[in-house]
Amino acid sequence: MTEATGGETRTGRIVLGATSYGKSGVRIVKVKRGTERHELWDLDVAVALEGGFEAAHLEGDNSQLLATDTMRNAVYALAKDRLTGSVEEFGLALVDHFLEAGPTVERARVVITQFPWDRIEVNGRGHEHSFVRGSGERKAIVTGDERGERRVEAGLDNLLVMKTTASGWEGFYRDRFTTLAGTNDRILATVVTADWVYSEAEGLDFDGLWEGIRGRILATFTDHYSPSVQNTLYRIGKAVLDEHPDVEKIRLSFPNKHHISYDLSPFGTENENEIFWATDEPYGLIEGTVERER
């Protein structure tokens, strides 16, 4: 990006640094009709553009800026024909559009959050046009630049998981402030946030990959004794990369949703690892990236 000069001071030249602008919170719901079985997309779209916007900042010249209201309109209009499959493909279409539409746009970034809706089961079958809100949002982050470079990331958020045993936390380092007792049987609960990067931006079955990765995350969460959230994080990341060669790396964030055994002795009864106090704050936060060695 071109460095723009803004003036001089006694401590050196003042310049305009990196800038971007766009439209966030574009909420769009699309229903695909034409048959009795409807398809539903429920999205939140954010667009951010980078490029030669110095004149607007330094001189108040808006002639090279695409209005953010126009960006919103474009998202809705393009959804008519371009939102027909995966949100990643829709993101690529939006990136291509905004790189062409903005006269000085050099880079575009589109972030899409898809809210899940599951078909209501009626007599063992998913209803054709009735839905119930599901759990865990799908995410897609698509970036592109004027040189033709494209990058697709995907992920999920707000996926609350719990296992009521096969988890512990013991043998940890202790110092003079340590009061926590170790345990080899605790509830492990967390809200999964995951972001991963695809090796290619085109030619992939983004829907199938996302479903497969989500399924592998959940299956791996269940299939082992967890001595720590850190160990479970690595196991999940490795399992995803082992099963999906199109994924370059995955970043995972696991906040601990603590469940503390409640002392029932003042009430003349024993708590046999059944009654827990669910706490929100403070909480442990374990994060990490598992990636392929270069």
Amount of beta strand: 35-45%
Q: N- to C-terminal separation?
A: 29 Å
Named at the architecture level, the CATH assignment of the largest domain is: Roll
How many domains? The number is: 2
Number of strands: 14
Instruction: Name the CATH superfamily assignment of the largest domain.
Output: Urate Oxidase
Secondary-structure-based class equals alpha+beta
Query: Could you name the CATH topology of the largest domain?
Result: Urate Oxidase
- What can be said about the biggest beta sheet? 8 strands, antiparallel
Global geometry: globular
Query: Which percent range fits the helix content?
Result: 10-25%
Strands in their spatial order, largest beta sheet: 3-4-5-8-9-10-11-14
The succession of helices and strands, N to C, reads EEEEHHHEEEEEEHHEEEE
Whole-number mean pLDDT: 95
**Segments where pLDDT lies below 50 for 5+ residues?**
none
**What Rg, in angstroms, do the CA atoms define?**
24 Å
What is the level 1 CATH name of the largest domain? Alpha Beta
What's the helix count? 5
Task: Explain the overall architecture.
23% of the residues lie in helices and 40% in strands. The protein is of the alpha+beta class and 294 residues long. It folds into two domains: 20-148, Urate Oxidase (Roll), CATH 3.10.270.10; 155-294, Urate Oxidase.
